[in-house]
Amino acid sequence: MRRSPISDFARYLRTETVGGLILLGATAVALLLANSPVRHIYQAVRDFHIWELSVGDWAKDGLLALFFFVAGLELKRELVVGELSRFKAAILPVVAALGGMIVPIGIALAVGWGAPGMDQAWAIPAATDIAFALGVLSITASGLPSSARVFLLSLAVVDDLGAIVIIAILFTAKFNLIAAATAIVLLALYAYLQHKRIQSSWLYVPIALGTWFAVHESGIHATIAGVALGLLTRVRKDPYERAAPAIRLEHRLQPWSAGFAVPVFALFAAGVPVSPTALSQMLDDRVAVAVILGLLVGKLIGIFGATFAAVRLKVAVLPTDLGWRDMAAVSMLGGVGFTVSLLIADLSLDAGAAERVKAAVLLASAAASLLAAAMLVRRSRAHRAS
């Protein structure tokens, strides 16, 4: 039976290389629009409000929650039946993520100590961008074992959650306890329905939307709702099922995440002025320089150092078929700090300083991407030759 063009297109979007290329393309378009004569139109669309949120906020808080949900589904699958089902394999990305947060923060504080805004901007280099890092990995490292992707996904989810916790502590001006309690009740209901093998989307969709709304209203970053729902979804199939709910949902939603949600987010988040004047001002800003060094130097040292220590102390084991050179390349990719780093920059700094630091995040992320890509291509060739 011949497949429909829509199913063929969805299958095409499920390939990570295609998703990574669409994401990079959306980023390039955003940068072009933000630095072109039509930048005022671009900014007006991004800042246009629909209800309480701007279009950019809907992309950041709403669409990105779908990506985090798909990431949560995949992480849950790996934890239960995949590469991370053993404790020593599962603990490694957690340790690596902690190192990849602590060292960049330490470097940023050392460089920017005393600079205006550094009292809150120290958290900016803490996060690794899941979508961009995986996009670069998928384009440049097709020859690496799949365990590299699992390690990077797990690491990025853990340190993004850590960064979201930092946001919740530092930047939640008004915590709504009733909304948070509502979110917990809805999450418990979702888990109960999963346990009882209920399959009706008429129940799950309102619960998911209600959870997102409750988390958003609580003052916590709304994307955490996506991760929580993904981790509560069942991944072991029953004898009468063709596939477990997590597998079915990942199959259905991954094309929407890769082909729409993440590119639209990038389209509105990556529009930062990068003129020679803006770059000069950025390099004169100690906070911006601190962020660049935190992402480029701190992430590599923190992730690789923590991984090396954990394995040498026999607390954890290396992912399947990966060597230390592979881990160095993946650690370099941890310096791609985009989504949550840009968010913290917006929350911690005034408009002018935020623009300079966001440019620094983009510059550091681009440099980390290029350096990691070169390392990954070399390692990919080595794996193919072996």
Description of the structure:
The chain has a single domain, classed as Na+/H+ antiporter like fold, CATH 1.20.1530. The radius of gyration is 20 Å and the shape is globular. Strand 1 and strand 2 form a beta hairpin. A two-stranded antiparallel ribbon has the order 1-2. The chain is built from 17 helices and 2 strands. Helix 15 packs antiparallel against helix 17. With 386 residues, it is an all-alpha fold. It is 76% helix and 1% strand. InterPro entries: Na/H_antiporter_dom_sf, NhaA. Keywords: Antiport, Cell membrane, Ion transport, Membrane, Sodium, Sodium transport, Transmembrane, Transmembrane helix, Transport. Its main location: membrane.
Furnish the topology, listing elements before pairings.
Blueprint: H1 5-14, H2 16-34, H3 39-47, E1 49-50, E2 53-54, H4 55-81, H5 87-112, H6 118-121, H7 130-140, H8 146-171, H9 177-195, H10 201-218, H11 223-231, H12 245-269, H13 276-283, H14 286-312, H15 324-333, H16 339-348, H17 351-385
Helix pairs in contact: 1-12, 2-7, 2-12, 4-8, 4-11, 4-12, 5-8, 5-14, 7-8, 7-17, 8-16, 9-10, 10-11, 13-17, 14-15, 14-17, 15-17, 16-17
